Amino acid sequence: MSSSVLVTGGAGFIGSSLVRELVKSTDYPIVILDKLTYAGNLDSLQDCLADSRVSFVEGDIADKPLVTDLLREQQIRRIFNLAAESHVDRSIDGPAAFIETNVVGTFQLLKSALEYWKELEDPERQAFRFLQISTDEVYGSLGPTGLFTENSQYQPNSPYAASKAASDHFVRAFHHTYGFPVLTTNCSNNYGPFQFPEKLIPLMIMKVVNQDPLPVYGDGSNVRDWLHVEDHCSALAKIMDGGIVGEVYNIGGDSELSNLDVVCAICDIVDNRLNRSDSSRELITYVPDRPGHDQRYAIDCSKLTDSLDWQPRHNFESGIKSTVDWYLSNTEWLARVMDGSYRGERLGQEG
Q1: Which domain, by its residues, includes 114?
Q2: Is residue 282 part of a domain?
Q3: Is 136 among the catalytic positions?
Q4: Residue 278 is a catalytic residue
Q5: Who contacts 122 (Cβ-Cβ below 8 Å, separation ≥6)?
Q6: Fewer beta carbons under 10 A from the terminal one: N or C of the chain?
C-alpha cells in the first residue's frame, strides 16, 4: 500500500472541499475521518467517494485505538486536521463541545500521531507532516487599520477562538518539545459551495430566497476578509507540499467587506437571478449584536504568496455570484442537510 493522506473533518465544508482539491491535484490515496456531527455530511463527498483512491471512516479524532489503527493500516504520511466545532454563535451557547473537539480532540490526535511518527523509519519520519488548520479569530479584533500577520499576538475573544488558540498552542508545543513535524495555517472567513447554512452567507442566501427577515448584528459594520474555500484549499495543498516545518502561514482572500455589504450583495444577486422587481434589501432587520463580537479581521498573507507562489483565483464579486448560483441549483442538498435540528434560527445570544 502506498503512503496515504488523512483528512480529519473531511465531511465538513472546508474538509470536503480539500478532498476535492487533493483528488484533482495529487495521486495519493485519501482517507477521510469524520464523526458526522450536524455539519458533517456525506452528501458533500459524493463525487469524491466515487474515486477509488478515496475512503471514508466514521469516527472521532479523540478515539485513540481507532486513530492508531488507521494511521498504521493506511500508512498515513500526511495529516490535515480540519476536525473542529467552528461556529462562534454555537460556542457562546455551548462552549463545552468546542473544548471537547477542538482542544481535547486535537490533543488526542497529536498524541496518536506522535506515537505513530516515532515508529516510522527515518525516510518516512522525514517526509511526515501534520497540518493544523486554524482561524484568524485567534488573533482577536483589529481596529480600522492594520492586518494580522503570522507574528500577531493571540488574543481570542470568543469560546470558539479560545478553543482554536489552545489547540494551536498544543500543535506548537508538540513541535518544540518532541520535534514533531507540524505546520499551522490561520485563514480568514471561508465561503463557497457545501457550507452548512448556519454561517452568514448560506444562511442569508436561504433567507433571501424564502423572503424571510434578514437579521444583521448591530449596525452591520463588522468587517471580515472573505476567502473562497477553493482558494483556501489550494493554499493548504501548497503549504503541505512546500511549507517549512514549524512555521505558521496566514491565508486570506484580500476581500474586506462589512457584514451589511455582504448581505446587500446577496440580496441583489438573488433578486437578479429570480427576476424580482422589489429589492430584498427591504428585508434587512438589525438585531442586538453578538456578545463579544470582534469588529474587524484582515489577513496579511504575503508570507504565503511570496514563499510558495500562491494567489487566490476568486475575487469576491465573482465568488459570491458563483456561490449564490450553486445554492440556487442545489436545493435538494440544502434540504437534506437541514433535516437535523437547525432551522436557521439565531444562535449565540447568551451574555
Answers
A1: 4-195+227-255+298-315
A2: no
A3: yes
A4: no
A5: none
A6: C
